[in-house]
Amino acid sequence: MTKDTKNPPIDRVDGRLKVTGGANYFADFELPNMAYCVLVGSEVGRGTITSLDTKKAQGAPGVLGVFTHQNMPPIPGWDAPVGGEADGPAPKPKREETYRILSSPKILFDGQPIAIVVADSFERATYAASLVKATYNKQAARTELEKHLSEGVAPKGADGGNYLRGKADAYQSAPVRLEANYTIPIEVHNPMELHGILAHWTASDKLMIYAKTQGVNATQQAMAQAFKLDPKNIHVHTEFMGGGFGMGLRTWPQETAVVAVARKIGRPLKLVVTRSQMFTLVGHRPYTVQTINMGADTNGKLVGLAHAATAETASYEDFTEATVNMTKFMYDCPNVSTRYRIVRLDRSVPIWMRGPGEATGAFALESAMDEMAHKLNLDPIEFRLRNYTETDPEHNRPYSSKNLKEAYQRGADAIGWSNRKNEPGSQREGDWLIGYGMSTGVFSAFRWEASARALLKADSSLTIQSAVTDIGPGTGTALTIIAHNVLGVPLNQIKVEYGDTSLPKAPTQGGSAIVSAVGSAVFDACTAVKKQLTELAIKEGGSLAGRQADELIIADGVLSVEKEPRKKVALSELMRANNLTVIDKSADSKGGSEQSKYSMYSFSVHFVQVRVNPLTGVVRVSKAVSVADSGRIVSPKTAASQMIGGVAGGIGMALTEEASIDHRFGRFVNNNLGDYHVAVHADVPAIETIMIDKPDPIINPMGAKGMGEIALIGFAGAVANAVFNATGQRVRDLPITPDKLLRKLT
Amino acid sequence: MNQFQYTRVTTPKAAVSAISTGNGSYFLAGGTNLIDLMKREVVVPERLIDINKLPLATIEKTATGLRIGAMAKNSAVAESELVKKYVPLLTMALNAGASAQLRNMATVGGNMMQRTRCAYFYDTAMPCNKRSPVQAGADKGQTNGPVGCGAIGGINRMHAIFGASTKCIAVHPSDMCIALAALDATVNVSGPKGDRTIPFGDFHRLPGDTPQKDNTLLPGELIMSVDIPTNKFADHSHYLKVRDRASYAFALVSVGVAVDMKRDTIQDIRLAMGGVAHKPWRLIEAEQFLRGKSATEANFKQAAMLAMNGAKGYGENDFKLTLAPNSIIDALKTATKTA
């Protein structure tokens, strides 16, 4: 691969399959003799089941079994925390008391499964589930974070939730000071595809699973642990996923339960949860309260910065995320402290949701930066530039690459930042107020361990294999381009096989890490193929005998001497001449010592123009420009789609998304897609995406860094900042709905 | 979903006769709300009488105005040239409602009959006086969940500020009905005791002590059509819907305005609000005040103030006490703009 060459903007390789219904998602699989199950959820948020009447359900037509804490088949690995896992980036339960589905009458959260009803059709299982009746010894559910902020506990870990550089209270003595609180509500991933699993015991110790998981290897490990099986006996298949956004980053307890029940009934068993169960059984972005203290001198130089965050978690498991991390390294500031706490509530456990904690933290930090810029009467970009850092102040080491200044400039040019007026509330179009806002996003650029295999056949077609799941970002497309760049095989002769544990092991898709991890493994496997081809060509008696390997280039299925293009051999010919039907190379790939010498991050800058109706408080995003500085862009079209998706999600986060709980009952009141407002097309303007597209010379052979998270991180702050610019009013509690803005405007 | 009988009828007479033969029978039109209610077991019919084959989908000009058949689809009404020409307010209101897919299924009669979207009504684990006690069709003595009003003292951001009761503060969710209320429509119904006409303003009701009753239809009555009288409002109509997202969301507050302007003077006007009450909320006092006045912001403000007489917030929805009058002003400004 030539690093200096931009990559071709090819169409998504699985696009046709997806739009024609040819792509099979887990629930599309139908097996002979398959049974269906439906979960019955608790209607109280805390308490104990006092009676459970399953008789009617058991007698309903087609019912094969009703499983409760009284008759749940054993899970041999029950001693190990069910739902945690040994592999991948999923959180491990960190507390003694973990939640084990259907193991006790104790209710830990509203919606907790109290029964699994199995029938010969989904409809019959659904009906029978409605006949299960429970009574409870009810207790008041503690679900409101703001009432329990003082109960925050420090997470276990290296820094115990505290970080300090310089003096913690330096901001107090700065001439210009800001203290502000920001809140983020519960957000729910809500991909279109519902979560679930299809479990099939093909022998007493052999298991086939079709699941909605972001990592087939992680699910394989979790099930191996739960059922004390050799992982080799567990086959997990998840080729396509109808959106994940983080909710598939772990194996959820109900999946394990379905596997156990499938064994008990001796039939393949499918679970597809309901939309309302998506709010309680597969995680969410945790409600988080943050405080920023910031001090600057009159020249706009940061003096001190303190960022504290408190987030909800479950009573039975500690979930933590990197909410305050960005504050540690984003700006050049000598005195920085952060504090992170979690509060254990009667709620189901959260999980990372796109951008995860960094998106939550960036909303607070980047709103505060805007607030401080206003206090200093500085342009918000100028304020950021005065505190720009070329090296990572947290770890005192260089960035592997950082082109954020260029990103600020290009984004500003594209949105028409020069039309912005620093004086808030000073621009109108008819009755609408106009404002501009911007915000920075940043996320770690990882390089995890991954494996891949490349098979070049004599007809010069190439197959790439890796167990990685494509949750939608275009992984298959990116891997195709990487292979094409190394081996010169025409794009339409490359096939990528993925999403199956029979393929070389790969990490869970998450953390914007897959192009870097799996892409590097594909790069290495293809490089090994290329090496063999080259050796065959230049060996004695070979078609290009006597040449040196570094003289050769490979393109369009032909190996040739770069400076004498007529000296060439077709790959197919070369293989036939050597009686080879296939060249088969595998690679295990991981980063080296550079991982500790450099700080590796992807950066983004989001710009928006908003229109605000001062009478109704309605906010519309009228323009959006998102700039990504994430190294070499491997697949330009799918990368742009990632950014567009991030902006759509960001508009939801900023303006519409909030899962509301009635705390008197500890129960959601808007757990459906009609009332939980994800942004719709009418909320999303045309989005301009800009890629800096400069290779990172350190991170991996492609020079590519991830983009899934940075597409969202910071966006909500840009909207809040634009709303302030339009109105002079600062909304610090997301989402910015008309009621909140109206209270401030009138 | 529980088992139920299903009957298809092809004439209004057969429909009325079928629904009168037993308790627990419901008409099924577009099904965009009823099917959801059945899935959630909020409504548990014993029998559905499918009226989709009734020949009631005509939209026609009559001597006194427009007549719209009860089974006309919301999308067909919105796209009708007659409706666009004579009652553009209705087109605007329809297009502000639901989504294109839902409008393609939903009928005019069904739209009028849709239930509130109050979350407590839909969750049988939550208290609701509208849903419980005993629904027609439920086992005798069985209620669909606890009684009481969950919204009072609960999540009531979407709820009523006018005409609510201690039993219920839910709002009627329709956009279409706001336009029909503003335009003085009448509803033609047919029932076991014959045909009658109900003024639109009397069709829906306030909750009082019987919030389970959304409207004044008598048992067995079928909506046949809606009449909209001829008016002079076509040039100055506006439907403003303020909502949490730009499409597919119910109104926080909506305002339907229809004005007959002569230069800057308001000759005649109709005003109705949605998202504020258990029924479409006509602003009679504000209309009376504005008649004969010039279209100025000061007059709009005065009218909006009058419209707010008797308004009451319940906590989370207090913002509507500001949003409602502001929306009236905003809608009046837009409607009275001269082309």
Automatic annotation (TrEMBL), chain A:
Looking up InterPro entries in the UniProt record yields: Ald_Oxase/Xan_DH_a/b, Ald_Oxase/Xan_DH_a/b_sf, Ald_Oxase/xanthine_DH-like, AldOxase/xan_DH_MoCoBD1, AldOxase/xan_DH_MoCoBD2, AldOxase/xan_DH_Mopterin-bd_sf
Signal peptide range equals none
Q: Which domain of life is it from?
A: Bacteria
An annotated Gene Ontology molecular function = iron ion binding
Taxon lineage = Bacteria, Pseudomonadati, Bacteroidota, Cytophagia, Cytophagales
* Entry keyword Oxidoreductase: yes
Name under which the protein is recorded: Xanthine dehydrogenase family protein molybdopterin-binding subunit
Q: Which residues form the Aldehyde oxidase/xanthine dehydrogenase a/b hammerhead domain?
A: 20-140
Q: Could you tell me the keywords of this UniProt record?
A: Molybdenum, Oxidoreductase
Automatic annotation (TrEMBL), chain B:
Pfam families recorded: CO_deh_flav_C (PF03450), FAD_binding_5 (PF00941)
Keyword Transmembrane helix, does the record have it?
Answer: no
Is Flavoprotein one of the keywords?
Answer: yes
- MF (Gene Ontology): FAD binding; oxidoreductase activity
**SMART domains named in the record:** CO_deh_flav_C (SM01092)
Q: Which InterPro entries match?
A: CO_DH_flav_C, CO_DH_flav_C_dom_sf, Diverse_Substr_Oxidored, FAD-bd_PCMH, FAD-bd_PCMH-like_sf, FAD-bd_PCMH_sub1, FAD-bd_PCMH_sub2, Mopterin_DH_FAD-bd
Q: Which residues form the FAD-binding PCMH-type domain?
A: 1-233
Q: Which UniProt keywords apply?
A: FAD, Flavoprotein
TM segment ranges: none
Q: What is this protein called?
A: Xanthine dehydrogenase family protein subunit M
